[in-house]
Structures are given as structure tokens and as C-alpha cells.
Amino acid sequence: MITLAVDRNFGHEYSKQELTHLMTSIKAVIYARVSTQDQAKHGYSLESQIARSLELLETKYEIADEDVLAVVEQGEMGDDPNRPALNQALWLVEQGVGNKFVVLHPDRLARDLKLQLFITERIWNAGCEIVFVEMDVDPNNPESLLLYNIQGAIAQYNKAKILANSKRGRRAKVMNGKIPGVRRIYGYCFDKANDTLVVNEVERDVYLMMVDWILRGKDGRQMTLTSVARELSLLGIPAPSGDKWYQATVSRIVKNPVYTGTFYYGKTECRQRAGRKEIVRRPAHEWQSVPVPAYIDEKTFHQLQERISLLGRRNRGAKPKAPYLLKGLVRCGRCGAAVVAGAPSRDKQTGEPIYRYYACSGKGRKIFEVGTGRQVHACAGRNWRQDVVDDYVWRFVCSCLAEARSALEQIWGERSEALRLTEVKTRRQKLLSAVAQKRAERKRWLQLAAKGRVDDSELDEALHPLLRDLAELSSQLRRAEQELASLTATGEGGRAGAAIASFRRYLAGGIGDSEKKQLVDLLIRKVVLQDDVIEIYTAWADGAYLRGPDSKNVNAGQGDGGL
Predict the structure, then answer these.
(1) pLDDT tens across 32-76, in order?
(2) Residue 217: which of 469, 429, 510, 519 has the closest Cα?
(3) Contact at 8 Å (CB) between 520 and 400?
(4) Domains in the chain, CATH or no CATH each
(5) Which end of the chain is more exposed for a tag (fewer CB within 10 A), N or C?
(6) Confidence of residue 373 (pLDDT cuts 50, 70, 90)
(7) What is the mean pLDDT of residues 416-432?
(8) Among 302, 295, 265, which residue's Cα sits nearest to residue 186?
(9) Strands 330-332, 524-529: parallel, antiparallel or unpaired by DSSP?
(10) For 286-331, what is the HEC assignment?
(11) How far apart are CA 133 and CA 481, in angstroms?
(12) What does the pLDDT average to over 363-390?
């Protein structure tokens, strides 16, 4: 017997000699199917389907095993018309391979009446006889065809009924406050006995640390999702699956609302259409909620999402060739579109830039009027001088830093000394553990070198990144210990005062463009540019903004720019 396990990567093309050999040697084609990948992997019913089909061919038709070709379908749905093994088997019989098409039961052939009739018609039109092991079908007997069609309708009904009962059972379980199975959620463990989520204390602390990093930064640095993933990897914190932290993994975790204390069931629905699963999002009013342990409140979660959205806007697009202090922060007050770096004005002789501009992205959108085809600009108005806008916003930032205590206290939020101490202690402990692991790894490499098991080049290649990571971790550990000592001695108010004094010293010494950008990103949430007015939305005043009465452009050489 020849067995073909056909999947969607099957790409064998038969030569004329191979096809001729099959046409002359094969008398029957067996089709066997299982419906899930797990069944396909373990072969739960494939062997029995083939064995029973061979037994029928030998006893009833006296066809030996060597005259049979078995085509195996692994993990495909019965209502899918595009199954690779089925298409292969049908193509073979249409080429004249075999005169009997053997299947265990009609529901192995199809679980959809319309599809069953279509496949049956193709086989009979090829001059091939359909043989079912568990029932007889006579194309010339009306009663036999009626029973065959009823069987197809019943198979389709049973499939739909099983899916409906399964959904109803899961919904009933949710109504009783239980979760009907769930994929891995970082920070929780699934209690199978009670069908609910329970706290994973280690992962909960990591999650809270991630939230703190994104909202408040780490060691004075703004943290993006990418830098959070890098920092977790450096600390040696295990990833949810595998040994790698991905930016997408961090994003999925911090955007999940389950950590506010509510697990939502039924947000999406899996529908099967022509054998293919389609995930459809359901309206919010149809979701079912189950209470779970909360790690953050709703207000913190919304602040977290706003921060993530802001980080995405700030880091999008290509990096401009010249420093734009407000990259990713600016919106157009005329149309609400994002403001980007525009084309500069240039010297006619040398071609060197004279002035650089912020430009509304809505001005360049390709919009055309129905009927005339005329291009319509979504935003009409002048550009804004980059140096004028940046200078005004930077002067505003400097004025804020002069009286920064209240602003910084509102940015950091009302966080108790005890909570902050706990967070710093947890971070210090993780850093101590990471440093110990790196030192132990360095010691192992040195021992291997001493025993002559690795040469100098291998030792250098291994120690170079190891020492770099160890130096970074040691530096972070020192900063954590300094912060812990400061909190223990002076409390939260002392920390704010020290930070303000540090900012003032920072400004007095003069700073570069990248440092200015970091401060602006920390203190400014959004800047809206009107034709002659700048609106600055700060990080410490929700919904409030400041209008700049002295923001009108008075510089010479403005050209066609606004402000």
C-alpha cells in the first residue's frame, strides 16, 4: 500500500511515468481524515480508518493491500472545501487512478450537506465508485440517496449543535463567576480546581515595576516599551514563554485591562466559514465580566494607555536631519492632524537651509472631489517656524522648572513613602540577584579557561558582553542603593527637593538638544499650533493648557511661515 500524508506544503508534481504507473497499478483510493492537529499528531483514528477500509476492500472486492493508495488528511475541518489531501485524492481519481474511492463514513468526507453533494458528484463524474465502510450508497437507488443526503444533513446539524452547546456551557460557567479556561495571562496562575485566576506574586511585582517604569521612567530616563523589554532581559527576569522578552510581549501585557480587576469573556467570537476559523470582535455590551485580583486601578490604567499612545506618537516616523524639540508632540490647531517636519526654505545660491518649519500633515493628503477630480487640501494655512516654536516652548519649560516642586509632585503622583520604599527594595533585590548571576557566569568562564577547555579568543568573545552587562547592572545597583538611602533618610519630600535642585544645576550648566528633548518629553504632553498662538498641554494639569501671549512671530525673514 502507498500512503500519502498531504498537507498544505505538499507540492509534488507527478511525471507522466509516475501517473501512468499509478493508473495501471492502483485499484482503490482510500481517503482518511482527522479534524484536529492533536489527533493528527497522535494518529488517534487514522490507522483504524485505513485498517477497516483495507479489510473491506479485501473481503468484499478482493483488492490486495499493494493495489491501494491511501491519502491522509491531517488536522482539517470537514466543512472546508479546500482540504489539500481531499483535493489530491479527487485529482487522482479524475486522472483515472483507481475505480473505487473508499471512506470510513460520510462525515469523514464532509460535514456540510452542500459540500458532500459537490464532492460526490465529482467522484461519480470521474467514473469512480464511492464506497463507505459504515454504510452503503447506491446512486441508482432513490431511497439510498435519500438516506445518504439525510446523513449529510445530520452531520452538519451535529457539528453546529456541538459548537452551540459548547458556547452555552462556557457562558453559563462565566455567569457563575468562573472562567472556562484561558490562555496564559502574565501575573496570574489559572486555578483549575476553581476555574479562576489567582495571584502570581513574583510576576505581579514585575508587572507593577513595568507600569512604574513607563509612567515615571527609570533612573531619570524615559522608558519606552522597547527599553522595558531590554531592561527586563538585562535583569534576567524570566519571560512569559521562552527565554526572550519581545517589545510586542511587553505591549500586550501593559495594554491588557485584566489587571484592573476584571476579566472579560466573549470579547471575540470564533466563527467557522467554509472550514476556516474567523475571529470576530463582539460589541462591548455583549461581554461577560468575571472579578479577578486587581493590581492597578482604572485611573492608573488609563494613564498608562495615554502614556503608551504618547510614546508611539513621539517615536514614529523617520528621524529628522535637524533637531526638532517637539517631534511627536505637535498637533495642528486648524484641522487636528499631526504636525511633522516640513521642507526648509533654502538659500537660492548655496542651497543651504535658512529656516526649518513644522508643517501640518493634513496639507499633503491626497483628497479628490467627487465629480470634478479636483484635489482638495484637508488643511489650508501657513507652516510654523521651527526655531520660533521650539524657543518659545523651551522658555516655557525653563520657567516651569524655576518653580518645579508642585509640577514634579503632581507628575510623580501621590505615592506614599512606604510604597516607594517597597518598590525600590524590590528593584534592588532583583539587581542584586542579576549581578550575582553575571558574576557566577564570569567565574565559570574563567574556570574553563584555567582548565584549558576554551582558548583566549573564545574567552574574550564570551566575557566582553558579560562584563558590559555587569557594569550596567552594577551602576543601576548603586543608583538604587543611593535612592533607598535617600528615601530612608528624608522621605518623599526630600526626594522631590533633591530632584528640583538637580534640575536647576542641570540648566545652569547648559544642556544639549537630546537632553532638552528628554525634559520636554517629561513635562509636556501635547502642543497645539494655531496660526498665531501656541497651546501647551502640561503633564501635571489634565485638560488644561497655556496660551502663549508672547508667542507671535516677530523675527525677520519669516517668509511664508506662520508664527
Answers:
(1) 998 865 455 545 588 899 999 999 999 999 999 999 999 998 888
(2) 519
(3) no
(4) 2-161 (3.40.50.1390), 188-313 (3.90.1750.20), 330-547 (no CATH)
(5) N
(6) low
(7) 73
(8) 295
(9) parallel
(10) HCEEEECCCCCCHHHHHHHHHHHHHHHHHHCCCCCCCCCCCCCCEE
(11) 76
(12) 76
Matching residue, cell 516651569: 400
> Nearest to residue 27, comparing CAs of 76, 84, 88, 98?
98
Q: Which three cell numbers stand for residue 350?
A: 548655496
Any long-range contacts for 442-450 (C-beta under 8 Å, 24+ apart)? 442/466, 442/467, 442/470
Continuous segment of H or E residues that includes residue 291: strand 288-291
Residue 406 annotated in active site: no
The per-residue DSSP string of 423-464 comes to HHHHHHHHHHHHHHHHHHHHHHHHHHHHTTSS-HHHHHHHHH
Split at pLDDT 50, 70, 90, the class of 563 is low
Nearest-angstrom CA–CA distance, 47 and 5: 12
Catalytic residue of the set 15, 25, 35, 45: 35
What are 520's three cell numbers?
520636554
CA-based R_g, the chain, Å: 34
How many beta carbons lie within 10 A of that of residue 156, not counting itself? 20
Q: Which three cell numbers stand for residue 212?
A: 512604574
Predicted structure pTM score: 0.51
Place of cell 574553563: 448
What φ, ψ does residue 398 adopt, rounded to 5°? -60, -40
CA nearest to 307, candidates 186, 211, 205, 405: 211
| Length in residues, the chain | 563
